[in-house]
Amino acid sequence: MKEQCRDENLEEIVALRHALHRHPELSGRETWTKAHLMAFITDRTDLEIVDKGTWFYALYTPEAENQRPIAFRADMDALPIDEAPTLPYASEVPGVSHRCGHDGHSAALAALAVAVSQRPQPFQRKIYLVFQPAEETGQGGEACAAFLKAAGVEEVYAFHNLNGYPENSIVLREGLSQPASEGLTIHLTGTPCHASAPEQGRNPAFVIAHLIERVEAIAKRPYATLVFCTVVNVVVGTKDFGISAGEGELSVTLRAEDERDMQGIEQELRQYAEDLADRDGFQVDFEIHDYFPETRNHTKNLQKVREAAKKTGHPVIEMPDLWHASEDFGYYLKAMPGAIFYIGTGENYPPLHTEHYDFNDAILKTARDMFLALI
């Protein structure tokens, strides 16, 4: 394909990916990552680089336009997971590693920047390449999506690497591809007292036990669509055996195909916690963490992904069930038409967020070529 950049550039892109892997940064702290990517693209392309504070974008502006702008998004953040120093480019940051492949997503988008800049025949539409922070916590996508909408972008695309599918296959799902999710923390404040006189205090342990039973009941209900309600953390008091606890909290992850179902479960748990707190004399507070909207592909744009796969010679696999992990690309798809697709890393490839996972460099070229075909 004439649109592809020279394959010798891929060695540079792999080296970039490995450099990003060595310097992982948590959500909202991607300062080195952002600066390194900006310098890489500045040194190798003539694209305009626009610094937006916590994120940036590279912009291709043609001399003549006959189509509305298109955008592509990559995420930059890593996870709070230790990595054994077995890779030659292993993480140099204790307790932090790229176990989800965002180093590969960013490297692939940088490869697209190089390809766009090198293309002999100029494109005739603006191309926005968005390097987004804080995907893992759901905090980065909303602002980036709002910017693209205000810029008049007509369509937006992203990819994610996915194990369990043949290497370099293009995996698609019509409509809803990833569910909505959020973290809900319920904090209860009572009165501590001596463990020998529990009647003199208010210990939240039993209220939390009732809340956990309600979570279990919600999780066991028959639903027409996917709904998960999962206990992820419980804290009550300390291991001081002479003290009856006066504070405690329960954290759960709520996940549903429809945001309205998730919000309904949240309201049920809030109301139940408030009723128990009123009954037993506790103060109750709530916090929402890591909110992700549902990710729903647009049919027209998903068809363009199928056509791009055909053009680049990659097999297409239609995903029968949605991927249960959440993804803040849903903010983009609420703001404008677009699609997220998945690139298979191998049927027996290690799963994401595990100690054996590392991004498969063999799919970098596939991601770059798919983006080019979509342009």
Description:
The chain has 375 residues and is of the alpha/beta class. The chain has two domains: 9-177 and 294-374, Zn peptidases (Aminopeptidase), CATH 3.40.630; 180-291, Alpha-Beta Plaits, CATH 3.30.70.360. The protein has nine helices and 16 strands. The protein has helices at residues 9-22, 31-44, 102-118, 141-150, 205-220, 259-280, 299-312, 330-335, 364-374; strands at residues 48-51, 56-60, 70-75, 127-132, 155-162, 170-172, 176-178, 180-189, 193-194, 227-236, 243-244, 247-256, 283-292, 295-296, 316-318, 338-344. The chain has an eight-stranded mixed β-sheet with strand order 1-2-4-3-5-16-6-15, with helices on both faces. Strands 10-12-8-13 form a four-stranded antiparallel β-sheet, with helices on one face. A two-stranded antiparallel ribbon has the order 7-14. It is elongated.
Keywords:
375 residues, alpha/beta, Aminopeptidase, Alpha-Beta Plaits, 9 helices, disordered N terminus
Count, helices: 9
Oligomeric state as shown:
single chain
Gross CATH architecture of the largest domain: 3-Layer(aba) Sandwich
Q: SSE order in H/E notation?
A: HHEEEHEHEEEEEHEEEHEEHEHEH
Strand proportion, as a percent range, falls in: 15-25%
Summarize the structure.
This protein is of the alpha/beta class and 375 residues long. Helices cover 33% and strands 24% of the residues.
Topology, element by element:
Blueprint: H1 9-22, H2 31-44, E1 48-51, E2 56-60, E3 70-75, H3 102-118, E4 127-132, H4 141-150, E5 155-162, E6 170-172, E7 176-178, E8 180-189, E9 193-194, H5 205-220, E10 227-236, E11 243-244, E12 247-256, H6 259-280, E13 283-292, E14 295-296, H7 299-312, E15 316-318, H8 330-335, E16 338-344, H9 364-374
Parallel strand pairs: 3-4, 3-5, 5-16, 6-15
Antiparallel strand pairs: 1-2, 2-4, 6-16, 7-14, 8-12, 8-13, 9-11, 10-12
